[in-house]
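Revision sheet: structure tokens.
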Amino acid sequence: MTKQYDHAYFEKWYRDARHRVGSRAELARKVAMVVHLAEYYLARPLRNVLDVGCGEGLWRAPLLKLRPGIEYRGLDSSAYAVARYGRRRDIGLATFGQLGDLRFDTRFDLIVCSDVLHYVPARELQRGLSGFGDLLEGLAFLEVFTSRDNASGDTHGFIARAPAWYRARFVDAGLLPCGSHSYLSPRLLRSVAALECL
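Predicted:
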């Protein structure tokens, strides 16, 4: 059975107290960490964010609260999420793999892909990562859970890959790990000290 990211899915995993993972406070802390880390490496305030696999755009409100002038763009494969929130929250229809071909009129200071990649087939994941060299100016937050993690929540379609598998794919895409699910664009490599990298 194909997984459906429809109204019922978002109700269960994002709003039902029995199933949802995380809280608004946890999300706010995570967003603040990522914003400040990106700005530290960019040495300036964030201008724009691409949120890939954004669902209903949960990152949008805390991002705008921290940086009211930021340009937010979301992408998701859920026809439901795009139909319901696309216009109001600037969410377009796209899969992760399409990042290999999609280009915008600017590069992004921050690319967020939170709790998505462990559901994406290997070939599609590699295809999407191949576009990061053109899309990313600053920091990518790629929150992914592996075969070594005690992941909770939606396990339907979860692909339990080894941490080394993801590390190799991210390095192949030119991304430099700097901790806490965060990776630097090749454009920032000259300004990073050796012990900032993992």
